[in-house]
Design brief:
The protein has 283 residues and is mostly helical. The chain has one domain (2-282): Hypothetical protein af1432, CATH 1.10.3210.10. Helices cover 69% and strands 0% of the residues. The chain has 17 helices and no strands. Helix 1 crosses helix 11 (173-181) and helix 5 packs across helix 6 (81-98). The longest helix is centred in the middle third of the chain and has 23 residues, at 105-127.
């Protein structure tokens, strides 16, 4: 049965529509390093609904700005090119799977967890002395790491309800998914982001965030950061379904090597702001 469901999931991913052309053009523009604030504003302005979402996010408590951002150009100048690109990509990915309907409690929970994880992994990367671009890339992975959950929940509701009904305090979500569906949300997320043509680094981080070991290449450190951010976020956010907090490889703690007081400061800073994300996605 699980193998049949897996085939259906793979087929449904293959049939997913591409991300809006605006999004792929924006990613290419920012990654080219030749982008200007005016170019980005003109591109995003072609989608009024997306413009409103980006401005709503930029003005949320999550970014803690002391001034009001009234234009996309201002958001680009104040928050940075990569931050705005990440907001557009994240919002577009969620909207592509959820559509225009109001979000369910599980989707609100997922959105909050995703922004918490993204904020945590970026903070960890910056504290470790990683560059802004590397930190923003990790942020994007944190924001989209559970996109597979949203896909399974929205595209396979009957099958995913079985996953939710089998929630148990001794098993993590991805373990139950693997048993029932034949693949977990990390693998699904990697397939989705790959089908959308997103950067290979992002695809790999999403696909391995529940792996039992760390990679031995340049993604070793960001993978460890993402795994820790995911675990810490699950510890902080209450959930309707009683899955176990996902375990990460023991060496992840050693690789990141973050003192407890630094970790506690990061957690407070991120979670004081992340609750604002619920109002944004519900709007």
């Amino acid at each position: 049965m699980a193998s049949d469901i897996r085939k259906d999931i793979e087929h449904a991913i293959h049939e997913l529509p591409a991300l809006p052309g605006l999004v792929t053009r924006l990613v290419e523009l920012v990654e080219s390093e030749n982008a200007t604030a005016d170019q980005i504003e003109r591109l995003i302005a072609t989608d009024p609904a997306l413009t409103v979402k980006v401005l709503h996010l930029a003005n949320s408590a999550y970014y803690g700005l002391t001034r009001t951002i009234s234009t996309v150009k201002q958001a680009v100048i104040v928050l940075g090119f990569h931050t705005v690109k990440n907001l557009v990509l994240g919002v577009s990915a969620f909207m592509a799977l959820r559509g225009s309907r109001s979000p369910s409690p599980l989707e609100l929970e997922l959105w909050e967890h995703s922004f918490a994880c993204a904020g945590l992994v970026r903070e960890i990367m910056l504290l470790a002395g990683q560059g802004i671009r590397q930190a923003e890339n990790a942020f994007m992975a944190g924001l989209l790491h559970d996109i597979g959950v949203l896909f399974l929940y929205t595209r396979f509701p009957r099958e995913y309800q079985k996953v939710l009904r089998n929630a148990a305090s001794h098993k993590a979500r991805h373990e139950v998914e693997g048993e029932i569906l034949g693949m977990d949300h990390a693998e699904v997320g990697a397939l989705i982001t790959d089908s959308w043509g997103l950067p290979p680094m992002l695809v790999r981080l999403i696909g391995t965030h529940h792996a039992p070991y760390l990679p031995e290449d340049e993604l070793r450190f960001p993978t460890a950061c993402l795994m820790l951010a995911d675990s810490w976020s699950h510890q902080q956010i209450a959930t309707e379904h009683e899955f176990a907090i996902p375990l990460h490889p023991p060496e992840a703690e050693a690789v990141v090597n973050l003192p407890d007081e630094r970790r506690d400061a990061i957690l407070k800073r991120v979670f004081d702001a992340v609750v604002a994300m619920r109002s944004v996605v519900a709007a």
